[in-house]
Every structure is written in C-alpha cells, then in structure tokens.
Amino acid sequence: MNIQELKNLLHEKNIPNELYNLDGIGRKDERYCIELIGKEWVVYFTERGTRTTEEKFNTEEAACKYLIEQLIDWHIEMA
Questions:
Q1: Please, what is the Cα angle at 54 between 30 and 51, to 5 degrees?
Q2: Which of 50, 54, 28, 52 is nearest to 41 (CA)?
Q3: Which of 21, 31, 39, 53 is the most exposed place for a label (fewest CB within 10 A)?
Q4: How far is it, in rounded angstroms, from Cα 68 to Cα 5?
C-alpha cells in the first residue's frame, strides 16, 4: 500500500479527511500525519501543536498499514 492507495481506502471507508494529513500540505494539528523524513516513514498525531504519538517505519507500506489501523480505530471510537 502506498499513500495514494491509502487515500483511496480512507475515502472508501468514509473516514473524514479532517482526521488526517497525508501530503504535508495544510493543517497538521489535531490529526494524524504521515511523512517521509530522511529514509524513514513517520506517522504521528498532533494535539495542540505537540506530537503525542510518533511511530517510525522503514517502508511506506508499513507506515500506511499502521495509519489505516489507527484511523479506523479512532473513527469507531468517535462514532
């Protein structure tokens, strides 16, 4: 899975796009983000400008899989 496939899956699962930032453009606060930093993929959540969680991955696929799990769990909790 890559970022584009993740984007499509999130749309199919009706996960609101205000819960995440996949491209680094726009707002990063109060949502999950995914970024390639150096050679690592980093998935984090920001709250009030502070990263409250941060996980690092060697592959885009692993980072995307982790992020989809987090977003689905979070969306279910909020419903």
A1: 40
A2: 54
A3: 39
A4: 11
CA gap 7, 34 in Å, rounded: 12
| Nearest of 67, 73, 76, 57 to residue 7 by alpha carbon | 67
Amino acid at position 65, single letter:
K
| DSSP states of 25-57 | -S--TTEEEEEEETTEEEEEEEETTEEEEEEEE
- Residue 28 clears pLDDT 80, i.e. is over it: no
Which residue bears the tokens 């969680």? 53
Phi then psi for 69, rounded to 5 degrees? -60, -45
Q: Tokens for 6, please give them.
A: 């993740």
Mean pLDDT of 1-24: 92
Euclidean distance between CA atoms 25 and 72, whole angstroms? 22
What is the pTM (predicted TM-score) of this model? 0.88
